[in-house]
Design goal:
The structure holds two protein chains of two kinds. By secondary structure, chain A is of the alpha/beta class. Chain A contains nine helices and ten strands. The longest helix of chain A has 16 residues. The longest helix of chain B is centred in the middle third of the chain and has 31 residues. The chains are: A alpha/beta, B mainly alpha. The structure holds adenosine-5'-triphosphate and magnesium ion.
Chain lengths: 235, 582
């Protein structure tokens, strides 16, 4: 059974229709990417998934739980965590406190410190800067912190919104490598990207969003070869 | 590097070109301040008040102080001048102030404008001219102000060994003189009466008293400036545990002195300190809401009122309470009720503004606060809450059959309550809930995405914040034994907000310092009537310019400022590097 199943969702901002009937599936333990141009509705889709936006029609299932009407804070206990667009770390708190906030709902101290260790191993630059105010981190470090903070909740599903935004190519590679690593531990990843080339390299399956509709879908490697996509997104 | 050189040389040139401009500007501003004091009638009032009896009034000191500070300011600002140059410029600034005052004198003799400015009286003229007539007065005023300006500059340029003791000595004389009435109130005991009367009269301090104060504080500071380093070194050589015990001993002594002070000093001080205590309590409550959770609340006074009215309802002789209970509750029994009612009002308060953020929240909560005040005032609630007549005859609490009827007892009651509440505030700050508050303060959406239940956490912020105010209200009700709606004005919410910001938002010690500064000081200066709020306003402006993060900021805020400075430094470095490359 699919881990995430989105069935024909319609999302509106007031009267403006942003998503007009989107359906997709993410298998357990997969990396699936959602690509598309600016304003296609990628962020809207993720926000609908994580309960920030309500659905006008359609449904979202995680495993066999219908989460269509969940409030955002109810998703963490279901193992879903959202790394929002533009990182949005807690700029005035220290790096350490940011990580602690990620584990807000957890009580298992021993497990928690193990996970913290795991995050700091994955991003050694964060370990060097534990006491630094998060707002003073570089863009790349902030992205690492945002992912690290999300991992502190020990998720089964990671929703990533444009983790490569504004990063130098070297850093993009680093971040994407860490996504692969995270995925290897069994975490299902839903990756929203404009950097279609990179995203299709690490994903197994991809969806192309256009004007609030799925325009195209397929196995990632094949999408990467698709002429239309090459023209539109890969340049 | 290149960039930096350009910048600094530009700066230098700018300063060189504008020394005249700067001196002129400083003189102009301080001259304006001196005139302003005269026009608003501050001088007329201060003339009545001796600092050193028969020698100097507060008015003399104020007008001389303006010239002195003019000199200090220009000496600090002109960094590139020699010592002599600074003194000369100080004299110039002083002279300008003297000229401003002279113009005022001329003005007063030539035109009769008392119908517009009541303060410009004959007495003021005599004061300004030192009773020397117009010409003599003008000469004297200009010379004296110039001398004072020069003295101010001189204080800045003189060596530290002299400067520090001098400043301390002068300030001590001034402060003792300013508070001489209060100090005499404290020295109420038989065995020091003789000593007191040698030092003071009820008009001010005697010359001999002022001299002793000056000599003692001057020499104490002189000793410390010369030998202080050695003392610190000796202290540093002690074993860490020895240092610790000395430090603890010091703190313990300070605590005991503080605890005994109101009992020894009398009711007036008990009253003032208790009033400060109430604001500390409320400050801690608003600090939870604003400092931790970032929810700006201008209706906070409503919770204070809720606590006070609950006590009045349940402890006084009142129809409703007779209906519900067979006897009035004691204050202690009603106290938890008062807190609970405030919490309930806090929750109710939170619900309509759950989705309101930032500046809009300030306005919305202000509206809620006003609604509660108007409801209390209304005829509808009058049978219950007494309308504008208020509620009278609230019985005082008693402990072991002993009625707490003196402000001093109530101060100790406040102190105990504030300590307990302070512990809770501290524990909350470091709890899971405290962290949740901080998270939603930083970013509501992300906080939610990390599993924080926004509704619960926000309502808890309002409810628990209100608990502190309810406690304060419960004490307030028995302070005067009667309460009126007009005691619960918007101004109280604003004062609490101001004391939080002056103390340092999000910092518990900051609440105490801010309350002492903004609530305690004006209470002590009651004899100056409305004029003390002139000082209050000036302090607020000065504070926000000089130390916007507050007097005792929280560790986190300090770190923030520090890292902001680090960022600036790194940007500067980058610019320098770029400059080198080009
Ligand atoms: N709060 C909002 N109110 C009204 N319209 C919105 C709002 N947020 C997004 N939209 C609109 O919805 C559409 C989809 O936006 P969305 O943010 O999902 O795009 P995106 O695919 O994430 O784009 P990008 O790659 O630039 O982040 C856009 O047309 C946008 O203008
Ligand atoms: Mg987007």
């Amino acid at each position: 059974m699919a881990h995430i199943e989105v069935d024909d969702i319609h999302v509106y901002y007031g009267n403006i229709r942003a998503l007009q009937g989107i359906s997709f599936k993410v298998e357990k333990g997969a990396i699936v990417t959602l690509i598309g141009a600016n304003g296609a509705g990628k962020t809207t889709t993720l926000n609908a998934l994580s309960g920030i936006l309500g659905l006008r029609e359609g449904s979202i299932h995680i495993g066999d739980t219908n989460i269509s009407d969940f409030m955002p804070h109810q998703l963490i206990p279901k193992g879903i965590v959202h790394v929002p667009e533009g990182r949005r770390i807690f700029a005035r708190l220290s790096v350490d406190d940011n990580l602690a906030m990620g584990a807000f709902t957890r009580n298992d101290k021993a497990e928690l410190s193990k996970d913290r260790e795991y995050v700091l191993e994955m991003f050694p630059r964060l370990r060097e800067r534990l006491d630094q105010t998060a707002g003073t981190l570089s863009g790349g470090e902030q992205q690492m912190l945002a992912i690290g903070r999300a991992l502190m909740s020990k998720p089964d599903v990671l929703l990533l919104d444009e983790p490569s935004m504004g990063l130098a190519p070297v850093l993009v590679e680093q971040v994407f490598n860490s996504i692969i690593d995270i995925n290897k531990t069994g975490v299902t990843c839903m990756l929203v990207e404009q950097n279609a080339y990179m995203a299709l390299q690490i994903a197994s399956y991809g969806y192309v969003l256009e004007g609030g509709r799925i325009a195209l879908e397929g196995v990632a490697q094949e999408l990467a070869k698709n002429e239309e996509i090459k023209k539109a997104y890969l340049g | 590097m290149a960039f930096n050189i350009v910048a600094s040389s530009f700066e230098q040139k700018y300063i060189e070109r504008s020394q005249w401009h700067m001196t002129g500007m400083t003189g102009f501003i301080f001259g304006f301040v001196a005139l302003y004091f005269n026009f608003v009638g501050l001088m007329t009032q201060f003339m009545e008040r001796w600092i050193i009896e028969g020698v100097l009034t507060l008015a003399h000191l104020t007008i001389m102080g303006v010239a002195l500070f003019g000199g200090v300011t220009i000496a600090i600002r002109s960094k590139n001048l020699s010592a002599a140059g600074k003194v000369a410029n100080g004299a110039a600034v002083g002279a300008m102030i003297g000229i401003a005052l002279s113009l005022l004198m001329l003005f007063m003799t030539q035109l009769d404008i008392r119908f517009m400015f009541v303060a410009l009286s004959n007495k003021l003229f005599l004061f300004l001219s030192w009773k020397q007539g117009l010409e003599g007065g003008i000469t004297l005023q200009i010379v004296l102000s110039a001398a004072l300006g020069a003295l101010g500059a001189l204080i800045v340029v003189m060596p530290k060994v002299l400067r520090r003791p001098l400043i301390w000595g002068l300030s001590a004389v001034f402060i003792v003189g300013l508070f001489s009435e209060l100090i005499q109130l404290v020295m109420q005991y038989e065995f020091i009466l003789g000593f007191r009367d040698w030092f003071f009269t009820w008009e001010g301090q005697r010359v001999q008293g002022a001299m002793v104060v000056f000599v003692v504080s001057f020499s104490a500071m002189l000793f410390w400036t010369i030998r202080g380093g050695a003392v610190k070194e000796r202290f540093g050589q002690l074993s860490p545990s020895g240092q610790k015990s000395i430090r603890y001993f010091g703190w313990a002594c300070a605590l005991i002195l503080f605890l005994l002070f109101p009992a020894a000093a009398g009711s007036f001080f008990g009253q003032v300190m208790m009033y400060v205590g109430l604001f500390i309590l409320m400050g801690m409550g608003l600090n939870l809401e604003l400092g931790l959770a970032g929810l700006l609340d201008l209706g906070f006074v409503a919770f204070f009122a809720a606590g006070a009215y609950t006590i009045a309802l349940f402890t006084g002789e009142h129809e409703l309470q007779i209906l519900l209970l067979d006897r009035p509750l004691t204050w202690w029994e009603a106290l938890p009720l008062a807190v609970l009612v405030s919490v309930a009002i806090g929750f109710m308060f939170g619900i309509p503004v759950l989705k309101v953020r930032g500046d809009y929240l300030a306005v919305a909560t202000m509206g809620l606060g006003e609604i509660i005040r108007v409801v209390v005032l209304s005829d509808m609630a009058a049978p219950l809450l007494g309308g504008s007549q208020g509620m009278l005859h609230i019985p005082r609490p008693s402990l072991f059959g002993w009625e707490l009827n003196d402000p001093i007892y109530l101060f100790y009651l406040t102190l105990v309550c504030a300590s307990v509440a302070g512990y809770f505030a501290w524990a909350l700050e470091n709890s899971r809930l405290g962290r949740a508050w901080m998270a939603i303060r930083e970013d509501e959406d992300v906080g939610q995405a990390l599993g924080i239940n926004l509704v619960n956490v926000k309502l808890l912020a309002y409810g628990l914040g209100a608990a502190f105010a309810g406690l304060a209200g419960a004490i307030f009700a028995v302070m005067l034994t009667s309460i009126f709606p007009h005691s619960f004005q918007l101004l109280i919410s604003i004062n609490i907000l101001a004391l939080l910001i002056v103390g340092g938002l999000g910092s518990l010690p900051g609440v105490v310092v801010g309350a002492a500064m903004l609530i305690g000081t004006p209470e002590l200066l009651r004899e100056f009537g409305e004029y003390r709020f002139l000082a209050y306003g000036a302090v607020l402006i000065a504070m926000m310019r000089i130390k916007p993060i507050g007097l005792w900021p929280s560790a986190a805020r300090k770190r923030e400022i520090q890292s902001a400075e680090e960022i600036e430094a790194s940007i500067r470095e980058q610019m320098e590097e770029e400059g080198q490359r080009t």
